[in-house]
Description:
Layout: E1 5-6, E2 20-23, E3 26-29, E4 33-36, E5 42-48, H1 51-59, H2 71-80, H3 89-93, E6 103-109, E7 112-117, E8 122-124, H4 127-130, H5 141-151, E9 161-165, H6 169-183, E10 186-190, E11 193-196, E12 199-204, H7 214-219, H8 222-238
Parallel strand pairs: 5-6, 5-9, 9-12
Antiparallel strand pairs: 1-4, 2-3, 3-7, 4-6, 7-8, 10-11, 11-12
Helix pairs in contact: 5-6
Amino acid sequence: xxxxxxxxxxxxWDSSTATVQEEGSFRLVRDPGHxxxxxxxxxVLGMSKGNTQSSAYRTECFDRVAFKGMRxxxxxxxxxxxLLANETLxxxxxxxxxxxxxxxxxxxxxxxxxxxxxxxGKHTADSPNVLPAFKPSVVGHRFVQACVxxxxxxxxxxxxxxxxxxxxxxxxxxxxxxxxxxxxxxVWINPMAYKSADVWFVxxxxxxxxxxxxxxxxxxEGKPGLKRNLAREALTLSN
Length: 239
């Protein structure tokens, strides 16, 4: 079902040659990909590839594209919630290649979805610009709905947990609602985790350098630290 490499998917595309489309304030670039294990125990999902990753997809080695410039922060995040405790960054980098057996990496929206930022005058993958697409009433939601139906309703046989990078209250609620609509009943474990059809979904801090709460999350301070502890508790229960 999953395979390391570029993904052949025409679900949102009327033309076999089209590579970009816009709907309302949203832009979709045709560059879906999957990194790592084909039958992973753990699937790690960002919201969508940003402009940096989308550009790298066209010009760089495929294995280096996913979470470009953020992988060290993902490992920090994982280790803060009890995952891969003794793993080095060098070893973690090898989890993004075809020989990986346990972890896989992709995005909620496999193609690159960006939203128009009026202040910057361009499309970006910043959460405030992309998150509205997760609302059923918003133009552009069909991209999110189609991607969940295509790639997340039927997961590989070994996949027992999905780690979602992004833990704002609005994103957690939006993803849980999307899973409920497409996968069936969602059972909440705590405010950062839920189960759907026997698969655990756990939200972690987003590793983007633009996430101003990342340091507090790693250190376990304040509200970000509380969210970290809730994620850690859920992951302990999921083992």
